[in-house]
Amino acid sequence: MKNKKLLSAALALTCIVSAGSCAGNNSNSGARPESQAATTTTAADTAATTPPATLKEEDKAVIEEIQTDLPVLENGTIRLLANFDLNPAAGKPKGVALEMFETKCNGKVESIICSWDDRYDKLSTMVLADDAPDMFSAADLDIFPGNVIDGKFQAMDNYVDYDSELWAPMKHVNDMFSIKGKHYIGATSTDVGVVVIYNKKTIEEYGLTDPAKLLEEGNWTWDTFRDMMTVFCDRSDERFGIDGWEFENAFAVTSGVPYVDYMDGKLVSNLTHPSIVKVQEYMLDLKRNDMPVPKGEYGWTVHPEKIANGKTLFYPQGSYVLFEPENKAVFGNPDEVMFVPMPKCTDADAYYLPSIINGYSIPVGAKNPEGVAAYLDCEMICRDSAEVRAIEEAQVFDDYGWTQEMYDMLLKTRELTEAHPVFEYFKAVNDDVYDCVLNPSKESYNQGTPWSQTVEEIKYELQALLDAANEKLNNI
Fold it and tell me: The pTM is what?
């Protein structure tokens, strides 16, 4: 589905706890957000009625004790243009990186809030008025390369030291968003874009091995995934293996290869790559064996509640949904709901998972890029701090009702994702490339259309579109 919302708060715990007031639905695997009510405001406009969140005094003390060489900014205010407020309202968890930025850098984040659909129009208007924001969320993965090609964002290398020891853990990720050695995104962490949600009670009732156990044993693969659905599925009883909008594109990248990649400064079509062919043949086999929920027979609606009542085995979706207690409850009782990453290609050398990032870019015309760099350094300091992790772990348990098992799995999925992240670039070139690939890539799984037929229908159009984009890239 094209019209689904992204939720930046699902990207990493540092983002979750700092952007807890975000609203929306994550659909990293090729989806675009629905329109929200068109609004443009700043956090200050509502401060009188929604005071900002604060950390516990003991947590503030922990952050104060962390030794850093962060600068004390003469101009500490950075302006974020986004569809969320980085300053959560009272009652929501506050991000530790934000606390560090405020207390150690004399910093302040002013959120300029607009609707998701209006973000780029608002950005253009502000830039033309010489009033550019300083920071723009890169979490939606739609900045690079298309909006860089269009001149909306500047290289960040003059402000962020990507070659430093601090940034070394994310160097391999940030290099994936660079042109001719210049970086256009400051990604401070990765997260898995889509997880496989399931109900442990259903797994037990059908005598299946818990996917979390399979993962621990190194045996959570395409083969065991399909084997479990083979045992479970029964059309006569309306039992199906997979529901949701997220599966097709999220599963495709478990091959390790995206439909459109960015390699050596060039956008590349992988429609005929053996790994893509293999993943499409797998999805076609699922369809032919009646394992996906036939959405067309249900009015093209999805039914997560069927996870709770034992009629659907797996529900791939952004992990953000599990941070919303009312949505988590749809899948069953709290002690029954669990998740794992997407299964590994059986003969792959590692887990390759649909990846999202926590990070920001600096628009052209920004007045305080140095302040943005300081804030990003705060996020990098916090990301691997044991002291910070303890604070965030408590927030997850206290504010979101997670179990230790779920939290441990979250950390595991992040570890796997950061080791071998896969980003799907077709969503971030332009609308024509997006439309060319998105729905056709789902036809094997949804309609039983052979991939070879789909490739013949779109390969020439896609290549022409990528050639045009590459010409612009070459001119940057």
Answer: 0.87
